Each structure stands twice: as structure tokens, then as C-alpha cells.
Amino acid sequence: MAISYNALAQTLQGRSTCFFFVPKALCIKQRSRSTVVFASNDKNIIALQSKVDNLLDRIKWDEKGLAVAIAQNVDTGAVLMQGFANREALSTTITSRKATFFSRSRSTLWTKGETSNNFINVLDVYIDCDRDSIIYLGTPDGPTCHTGAETCYYTSVLDQLIDDEASGEKLASTTLYSLESIISKRKEESTVPQEGKPSWTRRLLTDDALLCSKIREEADELCRTLEDKEEVSRTASEMADVLYHAMVLLSKRDVKFEDVLEVLRKRFSQSGIEEKQSRSK
Amino acid sequence: MAISYNALAQTLQGRSTCFFFVPKALCIKQRSRSTVVFASNDKNIIALQSKVDNLLDRIKWDEKGLAVAIAQNVDTGAVLMQGFANREALSTTITSRKATFFSRSRSTLWTKGETSNNFINVLDVYIDCDRDSIIYLGTPDGPTCHTGAETCYYTSVLDQLIDDEASGEKLASTTLYSLESIISKRKEESTVPQEGKPSWTRRLLTDDALLCSKIREEADELCRTLEDKEEVSRTASEMADVLYHAMVLLSKRDVKFEDVLEVLRKRFSQSGIEEKQSRSK
Description:
By secondary structure, chain A is α+β, with helices and mostly antiparallel strands. The first copy, chain A, is built from 10 helices and 9 strands. The first copy, chain A, has helices at residues 5-13, 42-58, 87-96, 157-162, 175-189, 200-206, 208-227, 232-252, 257-269, 272-280, and strands at 27-30, 33-36, 67-73, 79-85, 100-103, 108-111, 120-128, 133-140, 153-156. In chain A, strands 4-3-8-7 form a 4-stranded mixed β-sheet, with helices on one face. Strand 9 (153-156) of chain A pairs antiparallel with strand 7 of chain B. Chains A, B: Keywords: Amino-acid biosynthesis, ATP-binding, Histidine biosynthesis, Hydrolase, Multifunctional enzyme, Nucleotide-binding.
């Protein structure tokens, strides 16, 4: 089995793994940047190799030597695809940081993206309580599905049951991204003359002054729930208002919520908002 | 196979399935509430039964009659657990709206929560492009893992590789919830006297006036990216600032981001923010 333990040492040294994925004790601040203390000399590489082997020994592989491997987008939480991993696929994923699976039909190892270039860059790997199910948590370079869809899960059973003619193309979206999708649809509609009273989202999308006054107003109301010690349920409700109106602004500017989360992830994995803000005070 | 198609008809009629999970064509507005047009008479129930059977026939069950079934939290996106489904488990999940699996070790059907009462209430079911992998998208009544953890995925491979003494208890969190967790840790620290300059988050957590002035300021800066037609990348960056500071306020008030998403989901599944806002204008 050809595994690059040098690459693994680099993985553990990688700046991008710090903050979110490396225990705090192993991070030291150095010129405002976090660096993992992990020398990649031969001794450490041998120790690493032994640790990876121990870890692979702990997985409960099934009678075919496989475990379920789920690839998930670290920013959006979307389940991108699901395959199976054997020992080699898991160790390759850990060392290469590219989501790698074992193809049951072709009986070969395959790295997602090896033909499409849409790799899934793995930031960490999680194992479940039974040690027979694995999550590859990472960032996709492009659409994961071979059909060009963002994820492989775009067929809703309820859609199919209700409507024989359903397109079968509705991503398994969580609440935030369902809302983003709705706002996006309103945006498309807002360019077409509509009969009747326009929806609130369409009004916001076509009136920048209204949208901005609402965002400032809702941010103020959120603050007042703290300042005036209002009921806690008001805070959740006002934050929902802030989020919804700000998401309309994002849509207006063609910014995806995923882009915002990427900014947050990168900030924290570098010097962190906290340091940035402290320095500027 | 004992399946309640009456229950399924109710599922499809259920108000909570509307907006997010039912094609728009099947929703009509009635007294400001969305109602699915789906009469549950005998004829429709027989038609439904046939549709469910057709759908079950389309799944590529493996040689043991199983497919992978992943339960995901619709609000947070967290992968809660992974099991396997056979025909009966999937049809029971569709009709009962409780995530149901087939236990390979006990060779029986089991509904998550049947002993713990921590059911996973399924809002929709998705099938992947290969039709051999299923997502149950829903809301958990409580912790999903039998250990009491929120999800079954709390063992980080990188943690284990770096530190033999790692507690092994770090949930597979996406960016937003990693940030929430960091803020929460700063909040715990903020009650203990610390040496040196406090972090920015700790300063915000202990100074309501500073926190609220920052939230108002960041909301204003977000608006100005639209008003002043600034570069689009500024919008993502300012939204990240709004989100981070607002999340500090949520933490301060013991409100989880999940609670905010629940508010948004419920609003939209009832009359929707848009209608609510339109009525108030």
C-alpha cells in the first residue's frame, strides 16, 4: 500500500487544518498565524504510520472489508455523495486529503475528481460510534454528481409521490439553503411583470432603499432584545428576520451563503476574526 | 406489509410538508395559509399505494435487499446517523414520517426512538442518482446517538492521529456550528479571570454596548456594499461580520443557531415571511 506519510505529516502541519481541526494544544501563535507543532522527521513519520494502522484496525470493516463513507460539504452541510471505503481508500483519503472510495462494481480504488477534476478536499474524517460508518468532511472543487448536479441527492420521494410529472430535480436542501433557493426564484420572477401584489421578497429585491432600511431596522431590533432584556424567544425571531433580509441582499448581489461561510472558515483558519478585530482596536 | 396509506395521505396533506417539500403547483392559498390539494378518499389511497410500490421497485436494493439510509438534521445539516433500509423500512418511514431502518445484526425493522423516544421526524426522503442511497431529512426529538451525543459522528480521525489523549468527543461540525462552538467556549472562559488581553469574542460577550454597536455598524456596512455598489467580495465579507457578531449575541442569550433556523422553517411552512410582511404593510 503506497501511502505518503510525508504528505500526512504535511496534512497535520497544514495551516488550513488548524483552528477547526487541530486540538488547540497543538497550535501555537507565531507572527499572528497558527502553526501546528509537528516536525516531519523520520521518527515522527514512522509513529504516524503506526497510528494510522492502529486507526484502520479499529474500524469495523464488513465481511467484504468495506465501511460506508459519506462525503459532506463542510460549509453548507450538504451530503455530497455516499460510497464505500476499504482500508486503502480510507488511508489514501487521510494522507492525500482527497475523498477516495472503493468501487464495488469495478473492484478498484477511485478518487472522486480523478476524471472530472471535481475533487472533494477533505479537512477531517469522522467515524461513528459503531466504527463502521465514516464522514469525509470537506470542500468540493465543483459539482459532485456525475450528472453535473451539486450533490447526488436530487430526487425527492414526496415530489415523486405527489406528482408523476415532477422533474426529479430538487436538491436535498437544509432550511437555510431552501430559503436561499426560494429567494433566488423570487429574484428570477422579479424580472417578469407579474399580476397582483408582489411578494414581500420581490418588493425587497426591487427596492434597495426598502431592503437596506429593513436590514438596519432588524439589526436594531435584534440588539434591543439584549438591551431591553426581552424574552429569549424574541432574539431567535429577530435573528431570523436579520438573516432573511440579509439573505435577500446576498441574492441581489449574487453572493451565495456558502461564500459567506467560506470567508468565516478561512478567517478562523488563518488568524481568526478575534485577532483581526483585536489588532484593529 | 402493514402500511397506513391513510397516514401517508395525511403526510402529503400535512401543512408542515408544504412550502419546502411539496411542489408549488399543488399548493393553493386559502385564507393566507397554504393547503395541499390532495383528497384522501379510497381511490387516491389506492393510487398512492401503487405509487409507493413503484417507487420501492425503482430502488437498487443490494443482494441482501438493503440500501444505505442516512438521517440528516434539516435545520443544521448534521448527519445524525447512518443505517440501512429495506423495502419495509423505507415504506414505513414514508408513511409514518419516523426514520426507520433495518437492523442487520437483529434482522428486524427498528424505528429510531422506539426505546429512547428520540424519534427523527422525517420531512422528506431523497434518493441519490444511483438509486441505492437514501437520505431521511428531518428534525430529531433529542440526541440521536445511543451515547447521548447529538449525532453518532463524534470521533475525529485527525484528533486521534495527532493526540493519543484526544477525548474523541468532537462532533463532525460544519463551519457555522464550529464557529458557534468556539463562541460558546469563549463564553465559558469569560466567567473565569484570564491573564493578558481578552479575545475579541470575550470582550463582546462581556460588553453589551460594544456588542450592539458592532452589530448595528456591521449591518450598516453590509447595506453600504449595496448602496455604494462596492465590490461583491465586500458583501460576503461584511455578511460574515454581521453573522459572527449576531452569533455572539445569540450565545449571550443562550439561543442556538438551530433555534433561529427552526423559526424560519416554521414561518415559511405556515404562511411564510412574505405573506406575514405583506399583511403588515
